[in-house]
């Protein structure tokens, strides 16, 4: 099972999505995207909460 996030759930209209094995890794990828695409320089507690609530568990279909 992997974690998946759609930036659209945090920033409406953004088409960026990311997947990672762990929430920590996923947060890193989201922050790398957010700093480049949205000018986000700091992961504030408010932003972290938003991002965490947007994370979905993705189960691979066989
Ligand atoms: Zn985005």
Can you put this structure into words, describing what you see?
The protein is α+β, with helices and mostly antiparallel strands. It has one domain. The protein has 2 helices and 3 strands. Strands 2-1-3 form a 3-stranded antiparallel sheet, with helices on one face. It is globular. It binds zinc ion. The site of zinc ion has 7 residues, from helix 1.
Q: Could you report the average pLDDT, rounded to the nearest whole number?
A: 91
Which strands sit side by side, in order, in the main sheet?
Answer: 2-1-3
Compute the CA-based radius of gyration. Answer: 11 Å
What is the total domain count?
A: 1
The major sheet is characterized as: 3 strands, antiparallel
N-to-C SSE string, H for helix and E for strand: EEHHE
Structural class, by secondary structure, is: alpha+beta
Question: Are any ligands bound, and if so which?
Answer: zinc ion
Distance between the termini: 12 Å
* Number of H- or I-type helical stretches: 2
Uncertain segments: none
Oligomer: single chain
Share of residues in strands = 15-25%
Shape: globular
What percent of residues adopt helix (DSSP H or I)? 40-55%
Q: What's the number of extended β-strand segments?
A: 3
Short description:
The chain is an alpha+beta fold.
Comma- or semicolon-separated keywords:
62 residues, alpha+beta, 3-stranded antiparallel sheet, 40% helix, 19% strand, globular
Record the SSE blueprint.
Layout: E1 2-6, E2 17-20, H1 23-37, H2 45-54, E3 56-58
Bound molecules: zinc ion (ZN).
């Amino acid at each position: 099972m992997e974690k998946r996030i759609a930036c659209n759930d945090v920033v409406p209209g953004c088409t960026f999505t990311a997947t990672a094995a762990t929430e920590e890794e996923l947060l890193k990828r989201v922050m790398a995207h957010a700093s480049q695409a949205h000018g986000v320089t700091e992961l504030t507690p408010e932003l972290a909460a938003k991002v965490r609530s947007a994370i979905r568990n993705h189960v691979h279909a066989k």
